[in-house]
Write a structure and sequence with these properties.
The strands form two sheets. Strands 4-3-2-5 form a four-stranded mixed sheet. A two-stranded antiparallel ribbon has the order 1-6. The chain has four helices and six strands. The two termini are 19 Å apart. The chain is an alpha+beta fold.
């Protein structure tokens, strides 16, 4: 959030502002116009072409997580854009790193997924979407969600900016 505030402060008059996406915005973008479990279809088997997930590469590093019978070539986080994009040309929407949203986690989808919670509420659980390099392909789906508090730092976590009009 500090980076986004800095970026917005540096912007020229009349240029767009940025923020973390709301959970609903994130899922809409991740699906890329599809209604399937993943933007490439229902099957997890094609994951290595589209997402950085736990696979043979990770397993060779003695991972205790499930392995997938393919190799995407990355043991940890991959550089941006190494995998096939979705139909809207968005890369890495699934796998690689869990992405922060600005929405507060509500297990029952009570409406918080469509809003940004106050940045002053540091103890509120924030929604993470997309899965990571540490997750098996069956868990890397457009609808999969998790949460952490905003003070959490981990190599599994990253963010994507939403540009405001």
């Amino acid at each position: 959030v500090a980076y986004i505030e800095w970026l917005n402060a540096k912007r020229a008059a009349g240029t767009p502002e940025y923020r973390l996406p709301k959970e609903t915005e994130w899922e809409y973008a991740a699906r890329g116009g599809t209604t399937t479990a993943r933007y490439w279809g229902e099957s997890a088997d094609a994951a290595c072409a589209y997402a950085n997930v736990t696979d043979q590469t990770r397993h060779e590093g003695r991972s205790w997580t499930e392995k997938h019978d393919c190799s995407d070539g990355y043991y940890f986080v991959a550089p941006v854009g190494q995998f096939k994009a979705n139909a809207w040309n968005l890369h890495d929407m699934l796998g690689n790193v869990w992405e922060w949203t600005c929405s507060e986690y509500d297990e029952g989808y009570g409406g918080a997924e469509s809003e940004c919670t106050s940045k002053n509420n540091a103890s509120a659980r924030r929604v993470l979407r997309g899965g990571s390099w540490f997750d098996g392909p069956r868990w890397v789906r457009s609808a999969t969600r998790s949460w952490y508090t905003p003070v959490t730092r981990d190599s599994l976590l990253g963010f994507r900016l939403a540009r405001l009009k």
